Amino acid sequence: MIRYWFSGLIVFVLSINPAVAENGTGTDMTRGAMLYDNHCIQCHTQEVHWREKRMATDWESLIAQVDRWQRTFGLEWSKNDIKEVSRYLNSVYYHYP
User: Fold this and answer.
1) Which domain holds residue 37?
2) Is there a contact between 86 and 31 (Cβ–Cβ < 8 Å)?
3) Are 82 and 70 in contact (CB under 8 A)?
């Protein structure tokens, strides 16, 4: 009986959404990654985020830059979409508090 319970527990732990494990907030990091990959990656490489004169210098300016570029390209993202893309970029490149 205990073996079956333990096996079920292992399956549950392995099936937890990686986005929750990655940032601990339960937000949908995959949505931010998907939006970025579908709309931004064509022009942005890692170098854009790592260059010395980058436009995003803190969390607020990162959100402002994501909003600026989505408006420039007429993407009409919601505020939540902008935050999800910003969270994704922050977790991968910037690491702002």
Assistant:
1) 2-94
2) no
3) yes
- Count the domains in the chain: 1
Measured CA to CA, the distance from residue 32 to residue 50 in angstroms comes to: 19
Helix residue ranges per DSSP H, 1-97? 2-15, 18-23, 29-39, 46-50, 59-72, 79-89
Tell me which residue has tokens 């893309």: 85
What is the distance, to the nearest Å, from the Cα of residue 50 to the centroid of all Cα atoms in its chain? 16
pLDDT along the chain (97 residues), means of 10: 52 46 55 90 63 79 95 95 95 89
Length, in residues, of the chain: 97
Give the span between the Cα atoms of 89 and 97, in whole angstroms.
13
Output Rg (C-alpha) for the chain, integer angstroms. 17
